[in-house]
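Lecture notes, unit on protein representations.

Consider one protein chain, 366 amino acids long.
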Amino acid sequence: MKQTIISLFSTIFFLISCNNDKDQETSPQYRSLTEAVYASGNIYPKNEYKLTANADGFLVRQTAFEGDVVSKNQLIFQLESISQDARLEASSNILRQAEANYGDNSPVLAELTSQLRNARTKLSNDSINFNRYKELYDRSATTKIEYERAELAYQTSKNDVIARQKALQRTKSQLYVDLQNSQSSFRVNAREGDNFRIKTFEAGKIYEIYKKQGELVRRGEQVALIGDANEIYAQLAIDESDFVKVKIGQEVLIKIDVYKDKVFKAKVSKLYPKLNKADQTFRVDAEFETDKPNAYYGMTLEANIIISQNARVLTIPKNYLVGNDSVWIEQNGDKKKIRIIKGVENLDLVEIKGGLHEKSILVREN
């Protein structure tokens, strides 16, 4: 356990001093004893994320700044995209032309439809003429040559109508494919254009911006740090020797330097099982209860995680402890070293579960 503690927690930890300067004698006393684990850490916003660029370009426009509250999908940065803008404009023009070619007022389809209508009119006339010549030929009122000429004209018109029907359908199908391809190309270019416009994923506050207007931004580079300003948590570092004592739901008392003597209450919400080898600590997260500090990113804090609270236990000052389990007592005018059975302890007091009683006289080792 760290050998520092928040001074404000004097209501939890008792400093026992002896008044007998000669022998420094004292006796065990029943007191309220709270066992706590010390932790240091910082305050962070929930739902924290970093905006990254999806394209290379110079930052030419910035619409929000550090400290600003932003909404979901809000445009924050615009990157220069001259060539991409040109591609998007070209695909937009091609799409408009494809829509016009396939639309109700399509000049291409109107011309083919008109040609089909004329061919059907001619077929109707040639059909009437063919039937008339057939009747005349059946009555031997015309020659076979005239009859066959009328029949050939009718068959030619019939084939012409079929061919123009197929041409119209084929052209409509091709124009539809062209329209679909144009729409796909436009969507791709529009989506690529979105890569030059950096937007937020979720609402929050901008805590830090890493790039300035005019600077070159590379694809994958981080440009801003954003988090939820309304929801914050305490990220604590616990010494590995104390980590096994910490459980989810335990009360946490937090002291933040900028708030002077104010103490915030929180609850342990999450334990992280991986040891940080750099400082031999484990990470523990705590959720604030009703009263929360302002969401200033990374504010340092000190905390005590309440492990146990005992309303009335027999205690001795910790500085009378010899080694880990012995004390010196005065017995019949002599000093004697005895073993004790310890319970919980804090920086100042040790619970005595065996070996001493209220009338025992403890002395300090010379």
